[in-house]
Amino acid sequence: MGLDIFLVTDNTAELDTAEYLTGDLRQQHRLSRTFCNFMCRQYVVEGEAELEQIAKLVKLDLAIFHEMELYADEYAISEMLEEASTGAERERIRVQIQEANAKCENNIDRLLTTVETLIQRLSGMPDLPSQLNDHGCDTLKNNRYFARLPEAAGSTYFDNSFLQDLGNMKSFIEYAKSKGSRTVYFHIG
Questions:
Q1: Whose CA is closest to 49, among 57, 60, 58, 38?
Q2: What are residue 9's DSSP bridge partners?
Q3: Would residue 145 count as lying in a domain?
Q4: Residue 135 phi/psi, 5° resolution?
Q5: How far apart are CA 160 and CA 153, in angstroms?
Q6: What is the pTM of this model?
Q7: Higher-confidence residue: 158 or 137?
Q8: Phi then psi for 38, rounded to 5 degrees?
Q9: How far is CA 61 from CA 14, 34, 65, 124, in A?
């Protein structure tokens, strides 16, 4: 068992048709568990996590990924508020949620541009794994996950490479946009 990371939209109900949920398209939009670990690295390593290192290497602002991670849907909001012990604490949480959500709302075009640019810049970058510092804690298996070689391709979403995960994300964003989505965010569970 492990944590998975999912792409969710402001209109998930319109996307989650029976055909989508049981068909191949959903599998083509899945992000790997390694991507989930990649997004959580900032909480694990001392120093700069791989996302921030990649942002510097490709000279691209990737803050949108953290914004998507902090977005709270109605279910998450009710859980967070339930944990508050005072009215003042609930109000502080509400303000934090509003600020975090405002950064992410209506992000679909910006996200698509960011992902497309990231894929393009990484595709022209030789030997990305050797340029990343894993801080002595290579839980991502950098040499395989960040390789751009065809042999790095996995047979299931569990073992996607970073470029495959980005390709799946791009495909999902395009699909979501065609269904009227405006906001895309991550759900980890």
A1: 38
A2: 184
A3: yes
A4: 60, 30
A5: 6
A6: 0.90
A7: 137
A8: -55, -45
A9: 30, 21, 10, 18
